[in-house]
Amino acid sequence: MEPILIVLGIILVIVIGGGLWLYAGRRRGQVPDEISAHEPMSVEDLLPSEGEDTEEEAEGEPAATLESPESIPGRMQRLRARLAGAGGFGKAVLSVLSRGDLTEEDWEEIEDTLLTSDLGIEVTTSLMDELRTQVKVLGTSDPEAVRAVLRAELLKLVAPTLDRSLNLERPAPAEGAQGTPAAAILMVGVNGTGKTTTCGKLARVLVAQDKTVVLGAADTFRAAAAEQLSTWGERVGVDVVRSEKEGADPASVAYDAAREAAAQEADVVVVDTAGRLQNKAGLMDELGKIKRVMEKIAPVGEILLVLDATTGQNGMRQAQVFSEAVGVTGIVLTKLDGTAKGGIVVTVQKELGVPVKLVGLGEGADDLAPFDPEGFVDALLG
Ligand SMILES: Nc1nc2c(ncn2[C@@H]2O[C@H](COP(=O)(O)OP(=O)(O)OP(=O)(O)O)[C@@H](O)[C@H]2O)c(=O)[nH]1
Ligand SMILES: [Mg+2]
Prior knowledge:
Blueprint: H1 2-29, H2 72-86, H3 88-97, H4 104-116, H5 121-138, H6 143-158, E1 183-188, H7 195-208, E2 213-218, H8 223-236, E3 239-241, H9 250-263, E4 268-273, H10 280-294, E5 302-308, H11 314-325, E6 330-334, H12 344-352, E7 356-360, E8 368-370, H13 373-381
Parallel strand pairs: 1-4, 1-5, 2-3, 2-4, 5-6, 6-7
Antiparallel strand pairs: 7-8
Helix pairs in contact: 2-13, 3-4, 3-6, 3-13, 4-5, 5-6, 6-13, 7-8, 9-10, 10-11
The structure holds guanosine-5'-triphosphate (GTP) and magnesium ion.
């Protein structure tokens, strides 16, 4: 009787295991591969130049649970249009500058426009000085010439030479750690800014670049948080490491995710965290611990601070607290689609001293883009 049970058990395990393996293999094989030609991956490569062909249609039917990314030209056009909304101030300034023979009232109008775009007083003042000088030197109201001056000034402000690539280099394992660790990305920021959404969108981008990704749900504060990340995992076809227990230690989930990624030989592990803003000491404790335990596997190469562009200057104080609590390596500016305050890009880089690496331009899976200074300024000027 007993040996029969054992044999039946073994057969059951083989059948279920084989089925799961086949299913996983099928899903992996069907992950869309739209931009894998850009190796080694830099986040600048995510959006190729306009007019580039997409071959994704040739890749076969997407799996039922996976959504296929939209075509690259379509996506570019859509994201540009949304950026233009964030930069209405560029066009407004340009139209005043093009009036020629500017009166003090005109200059005041320009100043007001710049201030309401969240450029901040300091930047606005120096930009105003610069524009006054340049326009005088130019001595013309020729729209093209004025546009070139404004474009150059705005571009300077956005600091076009900063390195905005994501560090996706797989690190050497920590002493005593097993396996080949994945490049680790930790997502931090105030609640509601878009951390979880960005984890999902970023995983999608990485998968489209042929990277294998593991997501870690280290926001254990609410059960719904892990659920939300799991839904993203299903959408984009990557594994999510989570704890079933609400209130579990976030650091231990982050550790498990890093370990699982190393065991799977995955390329990247992206860890989501809780966003409640406690006092600074509590925040330092929690984020510091998450980072420390992940580093038992390997160093964390990228800590992305997620900021909501619509909160503008008001979000800056909280952002400062986060960046002091944990060494931030880059900024993700979300909800740029829902604001006319695109000047926040400049303010945030200046005050935190780290580059904006990614921008969120909507709630959809394909609404994340690398931040491209020239494209941004051109969108501002229409
Ligand atoms: N319009 C727009 N909405 C966004 C963007 N990014 C995120 N959102 C929305 O913002 C809301 C909050 O996003 P989450 O990803 O849950 O934010 P979170 O930082 O994880 O929030 P907590 O887990 O509560 O700390 C959701 O409704 C998202 O769809 C964006 O770039 N544009
Ligand atoms: Mg979240």
